[in-house]
Amino acid sequence: MIPELGHYALVLALFVAFAQAVVPLVGAARGEVAWMEFGRAAALVQMLLIGVAFGALTWAYVVSDFSVANVAQNSHSAKPMLYKVAGVWANHEGSLLLWITILAAFGLAVAMGGRNLPPGLRARVLSVQAGITVGFLLFILFTSNPFDRLSPAPLNGNGLNPLLQDPGLAFHPPFLYLGYVGFSMAFSFAIAALIEGRVDPAWARWVRPWTLAAWTFLTLGIAMGSWWAYYELGWGGWWFWDPVENASFLPWLAGTALLHSAVVVEKRDALKSWTILLAIIAFSLSLLGTFLVRSGVLTSVHAFATDPARGVFILALLVIVTGGSLTLYAVRAPALKAGGLFAPISREGSLLLNNVLMATAAGTVLLGTLYPLIADALDLGKVSVGPPFFNMVFVPLMVPMIVVMAAGPLLAWKRGDLPGTLMRLRVALAITIAAFVATWAVMGGGVGQLAAAGGIALAVWLFCGTLAEFAERIRLFRVSPGESLRRAARLPRAAWGMTITHAGLAVVVAGITGSSAWQVEKIQVMRPGETVEVSGYSYTFTGVVEGREDNYAFTRGRFEVGREGRPITVMEPEKRQYANPPRPTTEAAIHGTFLGDLYAAIGDADGTGGWVTRIYFNPLVPWMWTGGLMLVFGGLVSLTDRRHRVGAPTRGRVAADAAAQPAE
Question: For the chain, what is the domain count?
């Protein structure tokens, strides 16, 4: 009965969403206040109905109702409760329902929390958001019903993919979807602005918190997925340019560009058409990722579905949303007022340059991701595009972007003083040069180390430049320490958030450089009592033990790790064999230090008493996770800025904001 209730709630939600898509939009065009207000009530009812559906599916998983086909295919009575609940979204139908639930939640947030929005703009935003929901509700009801019944019901289910039975991956999809779906709000604001024919600084102030929230959630989701790949797959890596990895990275790049271009709209009333276009592209890339994951056109450990019929449906949705929005943009964007002018050497100029570089980077990643599909469709043969291509085209685009990131916030709006800015960065430049020389010398001084030393120098440049910009804000060493502290306390939280995120990106760059350039790997067969040396650490293999947990059997290796005769730690990697469904997994053992990770994984037995072992030293990898957390924390800090909760700055804050000159 409860699954039928969930299905019926989805059907009702479709009708409510359709009404919400039409009535407020017509009301805004006719100036009918009651019709515009209908959108707020409809958003609440829609959220309640979809919430009932999501709760019904969750309940079916919790009680192991195997008469529901989705539960029977993706759960098992022996699964721990965490993975029973996570099983709700660890499959195509359930993850689609989670997507729709988040979509409705964002719409409700605008309806309930957007009281400061002009009624016409709010009504149009809610209508566009509901229109998107209509498309996904049709998709789930006609091709992906999560409440289909089985008769007779099996005694037990098939279980959940063991790779997904992990705490990191249990929470990875919801955060990704909060990011993907969050960009629908920027899209809805953009389409509403095009319909209304007005984009101004107040619009940018309204759209930025939604974009920032989506970007923060997506950053956290990508970081969690990267961490899961690092310790769960047992290959010592954290990113492989997998097509579905790229599908999450593409909207992140577009969303990052959107965040920065919205700053220019807010501060200088410029780049309005470009910002609208980025909002459309960011959400379109989110939809593209959904298509790639669910269409069956790609084979990936991340993919949910292999049904081409579903792929055709969501491809049609992608074409309608993207094609329709771009057509509207082509018609209405030329009428938007151009806004303020600025010199190439200015803060606006630096933000525009970085926008262009990020957009180009997104374009190259998109091309590399889709080219094998295009070549196959045109019968040009099977083509594989792997990490060498992406590294070759992506990294050179990021180098100038990072260089500009350090200097851009120090430039003035409208017209900047580049020599003066470089003078203020002279200490950062000196430290950067010293870091390059020191890194190159310590790592052997060969030609092959120039790129790695350059990567560390870039990280140092960005980090020191970020600190220099913060010091300028609080006039460090130019006023008394007490006055500097008071200035720091008065800084807008968005300024603090910018400092934290830029510094976090510098830490990430250092981690990527170290792990890519200096990773040490040894693969060998080891017998109990044997020792291998890796990067100055000795790993003594003492043997394996076998055992069983509730839903899997394990083979656990044991390494005693020491350095220069001193014991450091004991590492116990595992091989697991799950029964439901029957599948092996690898659980790496990781011991983190400030300078890198000790990483060990155990493979198969060789039949003569030995075991295949993989041992790595991954330099600076912990810096990537630390930097990623800094990015997320910086985004959260920025979200608490009160200016994101109002459409225009209040008189009491204008002077303080101008004095602080926040870039974010």
Answer: 4
Q: What is the mean pLDDT of residues 44-61?
A: 97
Among the three residues 110, 145, 164, which one is the final residue of a domain in this structure?
Answer: 164
Residue range 460-503, pLDDT digits in tens? 999 999 999 999 999 998 999 999 999 999 999 999 999 999 99
Instruction: Tell me how far apart the terminal alpha carbons of the chain are, to the nearest angstrom.
Output: 51
Residue 565, C-beta contacts closer than 8 angstroms, at least 6 positions apart:
none
State yes or no: pLDDT of 404 exceeds 50.
yes
In angstroms, the CA 431 to CA 439 distance is 12
For residue 457, pLDDT over 60 is answered with yes
Same domain? 118 vs 181: no
What's the domain range around 297? 166-336+346-395
Q: Is 495 in the same domain as 583?
A: no
459 lies in the same domain as 473: yes
Which amino acid would we find at residue 111?
A
Report the C-alpha gap between 541 and 556 in whole angstroms.
11
The one-letter amino acid code at 450 reads L
Beta bridge partners of 537: 534
Q: Count Cβ neighbours within 10 Å for each residue of 84-101 and write b for 16 or more, e otherwise.
A: bbbbbbbbbbbbbbbbbb
How far apart (Å, rounded) are the C-alpha atoms in residues 304 and 98?
14
Rounded Cα distance between 12 and 2, Å, is 15
| Domain end residue (candidates: 144, 164, 184) | 164
- DSSP β-ladder status, 531-534 and 589-592: unpaired
Distances (CA, A) of 526 to 385, 480, 519, 587, 613: 35, 63, 21, 18, 7
- Parallel/antiparallel/unpaired status of strands 611-619 and 520-526: antiparallel
Same domain? For 504 and 629 the reply is yes
In a domain, 415, yes or no: no
Report the pLDDT averaged over residues 628-639: 96
How far is 68 from 57, CA to CA, in rounded Å? 9
**How far is the C-alpha of 479 from the C-alpha of 460, rounded, in Å?**
26
Same-domain pairing of 250 and 356: yes
